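Changelog-linked ticket: iron/sulfur cluster example.
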Amino acid sequence: MNLLTVGNPKVLKGMKQGYMTYILHLAPASLSGYNTCPKATAGCKSACLNTAGRGGMFKKGETTNTIQKARIRKTKMFFEDRISFMNSLVKDIELAIKQSIKKDLVPVFRLNGTSDLSFEKYEVLRNGQSYTNIFNAFPEVIFYDYTKVLGRKISSIANYSLTFSAADGNDADVYRAIAEGYNVATVFGVKKTEPLPETYFGREVINGDESDLRFLDPKGVIVGLYAKGKAKKDTSGFVKYPTIMLKAA
Ligand code: SF4
């Protein structure tokens, strides 16, 4: 498989529920020289999952590794040779479907593991037939993503689920996203041993760390996530501190 990967800890939790998530990791923001995150903020770039896990392990004195190089290579391919990229993606998805069926798991796909591209805009060929986008080319499987981009034209795509991502300085978009019916993923500066707030923005908070299967979430909720890695030290406003907010109120 060239483009898709499996295996982060949250994906493994999903396997217990019968799903296998295949993720496309591109280079976030402008790391590759091409911007894959049009609404990235200073806080999200600094806390980005791009350097979580093995992607963030560098040999002494080095600032990159094979995972980062692969993400940059894939991103350049997406922008410089879109047809080959989309053909490879189709082949990878077909292979992933076969692999998961053998394992008795339901394949699901996250194309923006570390990017925020509007994949509904890009045409694709499958078995010689042209489709308006990858979601329409694979109506038999579920795709899901997190996004900070509002106004995406996905209402007619039944097999694509989007959760809006709160960040530093995008509260106005959070209000709009809630009004438009999105669930909103929010990173809270709460210790793992402590409970997430019960409500936020007037909505029930569910624990989004129990799995990554966002398409199974109830509607109208805040998807609470515990701050991890660099986010634990965030002071940009990307991580929300409900206790401080309550004291200030
Ligand atoms: S928008 Fe998402 S993928 Fe892009 S830099 Fe921010 S956190 Fe990372």
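Closing comment: Example verified and attached. The radius of gyration is 18 Å. The longest helix spans residues 82-102.
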